[in-house]
Amino acid sequence: MPYASSQETYWGNPAANQAIFNAYAAAGFKSVRIPVAWTEYADASGNIAPFWMARVTQVVNYARNAGLTVIINIHWDGGWIDAQTSLQAGVEAKMTNFWTQIANNFKSYDNHVLFAGMNEIQDSTNANNPPTASECAVEKSYNQTFVNAVRATGGNNATRPLVVQAYQTNLDVAVSCNATLPTDSAANALIMEIHYYTPGDFTINTGAPWNTATTSVCEWGKEAETLTDTEGGNNSNSESYVDSEFAKMQTTFIDKGVPVIMGEYAAGIRSECTNADYLANVRYWDQYITQSAVAHGVVPIYWDTGSLFDRNTGAQLDPTTIGMIVKAAQ
């Protein structure tokens, strides 16, 4: 049975309100990406519950009232968007159904509301490995299905900028798999999305039991107190590596007129990292990734899980990090 009420507090944050979006805008952020689940709120025929569409619309309006550009998507949503050939027909039918409903609901909104078709899609049976040719083809077909569904609804959706994703939202795979964009009836209206959590043991694998408090997971870049074989040089713990990665986005997409957004990036806090400079390292990673992305034309959208602002009041919980990110993006 679909949910009859909002489950948006499931991950521990309070329900969205106007104050939090006002706070982002006041701090200097220009856009917000709102991840949305839909399957849990749809009936057996795929009809999205009116109360849920109304709630998503209300949250989008909060962001627009604050002057923010908004991106909404189909997020993980139970994992049904999977790049397996055997699943492709069913996935594309469901994508078309959902995006037809979502796009029709927001048809009258201007281009400050953007749609992103999906999130971090891969073949779950070949997880975290580079895609095969068939897996790449399936994921690209999903991007095309999304574009077709939205454009077919007409109105402002005929020309609205749409966000298509790289396979796994992986920067390097974007170059090999997604350099050719979907066919689009609108001219110059597609945006490529990547995410960035490199190196993973420093940024996102914060709860993985196989990691220990070593220099390689507790330090990054020139802010590292000591430079070992895992820091410095042209590897994922260095500034030069970051610059070379974003340069790929610039030459593959941006220089050819295709905008790129970095829809997620952040460095989490590892409880086992107690060295005095660790927090400075984390903040420096946030700052440098932001700075390098902007320098290469990539639009950064920070993945805030509730650590930067009080989600009830909008009060800043970490003004130092907020200030560093906003300044780096200027």
Structure notes:
The radius of gyration is 20 Å and the shape is globular. It contains 10 helices and 7 strands. Helix 3 (88-105) packs parallel to helix 4. It has a domain at 18-196: Glycosidases (TIM Barrel, Alpha-Beta Barrel), CATH 3.20.20. Residues 227-233 have low confidence and may be disordered. Helix 2 links the parallel strand 1 and strand 2. It starts with 17 loop residues before the first helix and ends with a helix. It has 330 residues and is of the alpha/beta class. Strands 1-2-3-4-5-6-7 form a 7-stranded parallel sheet.
List the helices and strands and how they pair.
Blueprint: H1 18-27, E1 31-34, H2 50-65, E2 69-73, H3 88-105, E3 113-116, H4 133-151, E4 162-165, H5 171-177, E5 190-196, H6 200-203, H7 215-218, H8 239-252, E6 260-265, H9 278-295, E7 298-300, H10 319-328
Parallel strand pairs: 1-2, 2-3, 3-4, 4-5, 5-6, 6-7
Helix pairs in contact: 1-2, 3-4, 5-8, 8-9, 9-10
Provide tags for this entry.
7 strands, alpha/beta, 330 residues, 10 helices, 7-stranded parallel β-sheet, TIM Barrel
SSE topology string:
HEHEHEHEHEHHHEHEH
The average pLDDT value, as a whole number, equals 93
Q: Strand percentage, roughly?
A: 5-15%
Please state the second-level CATH architecture of one domain. Alpha-Beta Barrel
CATH topology of one domain: TIM Barrel
Number of helices: 10
Query: What kind of sheet is the major sheet?
Result: 7 strands, parallel
- Indicate the low-confidence ranges by residue numbers: 227-233
**How far apart, in Å, are the first and last alpha carbons?**
47 Å
Helix content: 25-40%
Number of strands: 7
